[in-house]
Design brief:
With 270 residues, this protein is mainly α. Helix content is 67%, strand content 2%. Strands 1-2 form a two-stranded antiparallel ribbon.
Length: 270
């Protein structure tokens, strides 16, 4: 007598029905706990994102002073979150993507809308077109930075950027607003000039020009205390005379860009 085939689909008479364990619909990854402190960099990035959103809302209501202040807060948080992530060893792909998306809103969309609400209240086509070009240049710069290239990597090793970084571009594009608040009785620039300014700053962000970075600045140890005092003095001046300080910083940065660009042009021709 042949033994019953164990692979047969026909159940044997009198045998108990066999049941298979239910298959899980989703495979659950093993749980991994992490210290709460490692979430601080992402929380700072989200806080910067909220600052940019609130800046847009305030600018739409005409509160440009507080809108600019929130963009500065977002820039400070953007400068700290990456360093904090490296210090805590909590870098992650999602953190990098979140930082890039927050930069696009805070230093692309928000400054473009702030300048548009302030300079082009009648929703002029020329001004809105210039604002869109600025925002597109910002997102192109961030996309290029995310992908990376050999030139940018080589400049980074030298402590330089390729093109104007987006936080600096955001501070720079709002220069006409600083000047208008510093000298409220002065005539406002014509629409064509403000539009060209928006486009020009956008092109600086996507340019191939090597621009200086604070990472390349070295301070002698014995003078570190003086630098700290100077930093505190700068914060006090920003709080007491914000428009004069922002105008001076922007013009000084423009001068550095002009000198740097001229030196690079001479080297390329020589």
């Amino acid at each position: 007598m042949d033994a019953p085939d164990p692979q047969s689909a026909e159940p044997q008479e009198g045998a108990e029905p066999q049941t298979r364990p239910a298959r899980a619909r989703w495979a659950m990854a093993p749980r991994r706990d992490m210290p709460l402190v490692q979430l601080l960099p992402n929380l700072m990035t989200v806080a910067a994102l909220c600052a940019g959103l609130l800046a847009i809302r305030l600018a739409a209501r005409g509160d440009y002073a507080n809108a600019v202040a929130l963009i500065i807060v977002a820039a400070v948080l953007d400068g700290l979150d990456g360093r904090l992530a490296r210090f805590l060893k909590s870098e992650s792909p999602i953190g990098a993507e979140l930082d890039s998306l927050a930069d696009f809103l805070n230093f692309g969309v928000a400054p473009g809308l702030i300048i548009s609400f302030w300079a082009f209240p009648a929703a002029a086509d020329l001004g809105w077109g210039a604002a869109m070009i600025y925002v597109v240049c910002c997102v192109l710069r961030l996309a290029r930075f995310n992908v990376g290239n050999e030139v940018a990597a080589g400049l980074a090793r030298l402590g330089k950027f390729q093109g104007v970084p987006s936080p600096a571009g955001a501070m720079l594009v709002m220069l006409p607003l600083y000047v208008a608040f510093l000298w409220p009785d002065a005539p406002r620039l014509p629409e064509i000039a403000l539009s060209l300014w928006l486009v020009g700053v956008g092109f600086l962000m996507i340019s191939r020009m090597a621009t200086p970075s604070l990472k390349s600045v070295r301070v002698p140890t014995e003078r570190a205390s003086f630098v700290l005092v100077a930093g505190v003095a700068l914060v006090v001046i920003l709080l007491r005379y914000p428009w004069a300080a922002l105008t001076t910083i922007s013009l000084a940065y423009l001068a550095v860009l002009a000198v740097t660009g001229f030196a690079q042009l001479r080297r390329s021709r020589g």
